[in-house]
Design goal:
This is Xylulose kinase. InterPro entries: ATPase_NBD (IPR043129), Carb_kinase_FGGY (IPR000577), Carb_kinase_FGGY_CS (IPR018483), FGGY_C (IPR018485), FGGY_Carb_Kinase (IPR050406), FGGY_N (IPR018484), Xylulokinase (IPR006000). It comes from Pleomorphomonas carboxyditropha. The structure is a single chain. This protein is of the alpha/beta class and about 500 residues long. Helix content is about 35%, strand content about 20%. The chain is built from 17 helices and 24 strands. The strands form seven sheets. Strands 1, 2, 3, 6, 14, 15 and 16 form a seven-stranded mixed beta sheet that branches. A six-stranded mixed beta sheet has the order 19-20-18-17-23-24, with helices on both faces. The protein has a three-stranded antiparallel beta sheet with strand order 4-5-8. Strand 19 and strand 20 form a beta hairpin. It is globular, with a radius of gyration of 21 Å. The structure holds adenosine-5'-diphosphate and 5-O-phosphono-D-xylulose. The site of adenosine-5'-diphosphate (ADP) has 17 residues, from helix 11 and helix 12. The site of adenosine-5'-diphosphate has 17 residues, from helix 11 and helix 12.
Amino acid sequence: MFLGIDCGTQGTKALIVDDAGRTLGRGHAAHDLIERANGAREQEPSWWVAAMAAAVRGAIADAGVSGRDIVALGVSGQQHGLVVLDETGASIRPAKLWNDTETAPQNEALIAGLGGAAAWFDQLGIVPRTGYTISKLLWLKENEPDNFRRIRRILLPHDYLNYWLTGRAVAEYGDASGTGFFDIRRRVWATAPLDLIDGGSGFLAAALPELIAPDAVVGSLTAVAAEALGLSTRCLVSAGGGDNMMGAIGTGNVRAGVVTISLGTSATAYCYAEEPVTDADGWVAPFCSSSGGWLPLICTMNATNVTGRMVSAFGHDIGFLSEALAATLPGAGGLTLLPFLNGERTPDLPTATGSLVGLRSDNLTQENLVRAMVEGVSFGVTGAMRRILGGRDPDRIFLVGGGARSAPWRQLIADASGAEIVVPAGEEAGCLGGALQAMWAARREAGTPEPLSAIAERSIALDADKTMRPDPARRAAYDDAFGRYADALRRIYGVRA
Ligand SMILES: Nc1ncnc2c1ncn2[C@@H]1O[C@H](COP(=O)(O)OP(=O)(O)O)[C@@H](O)[C@H]1O
Ligand SMILES: O=C(CO)[C@@H](O)[C@H](O)COP(=O)(O)O
């Protein structure tokens, strides 16, 4: 048996699968979030550890198996968060997260510091957006110099969990490619951006962990970790990766031609590529995959965090989202909502707020407002998706993340994109990706290597009941609603969709 763990923004999930990738059991535990009006979004790394232990124990109980029989595990984690450890290995402060927009001024200063976007692109193959790890380090130096001086180790969320599990601090290419101090073409740390922060003293470079290959084993569980999770100290830990990289593995997106959209706290769209992808406008994040290649990706900061918030502001539980979609027509009666409640990364509007356009006395209903929010979130990702596909429309999309549980939302994405929507059985693609990567690493370690593509091919099944086909009759209404969304974006923010 293999175990996948996914530390998302709202919670940690765990999934146990057998050798054929079939789901045996799942667990879940929610996270708190520190949110401040200035855009700060933070979590204590210790919360992730506690949630991981609860989710894994829940999955073991759900599967009715012995945790001691789990051979290997892989950890998927929200990208870009900054975990800083002191000389004792303790976390210095809460981690600033991928959706923290407080560091927008530091990001701007760093882009200018290296000579502008073109210089970044030349040197690293990537231009940092607010939310990437690098601006959090400059923020720490400027705002908490005592904490900055105590830094001895810099880790991403999933690397921190691997460190907690094994005692070994390492990083792998996929998640590292979202830091802003990694050369995405050559797959090595790039210290020039760190020099801008520490004056070239090498202080920050010395805190970077060793980079390992995606099919490497980090180590096995410490006695403390094995006890906390209910596993054996023989259990191996694979390299893991960013949640999108692991979602890619969990949807078989390890070869060209597969497209995945995740509706989690963020909405993302990504597809595997053999070569690094360039995008002069900077909408596409040209990340590495955690399977060997690259993973060009579009990420918007506002997805189920804002749809869930609107539903609860109206006093309902999440089931109301599907009810509202079912009770309304495409276009939300003429309402258009730009859902940038937490600033936005794609397009690059870190200090933006949400906007509602087209309100009339005949369309002011809770249901239309929820639909307008869901449409705004969906258009942000479906409208930008062509950029990762060289301008093409996909025929089929793997839909994952919490939002994929809503049948009317799946239908909306099918109708608005013109693609067939499929959902992997077991739902939790990030967890499944972790488990499959663990299988890949364990096979290599045992001297019986198997290509990841073959493991994915035989392990990923679709949940046929959740497939949605596009209805051409609704396409025109969505094209019209998207036109209004694009128009609002241009008029309010001067940005072309
Ligand atoms: N049936 C549903 N309909 C719509 N949204 C849902 C449904 N079930 C869950 N969600 C949304 O998914 C969110 C969790 O998504 P998830 O992918 O687990 O987020 P993350 O990985 O960022 O923690 C919930 O907070 C909720 O808003
Ligand atoms: O920043 C990104 C991708 O670049 C986000 O996708 C985070 O990785 C958070 O993921 P979820 O919590 O939405 O799964």
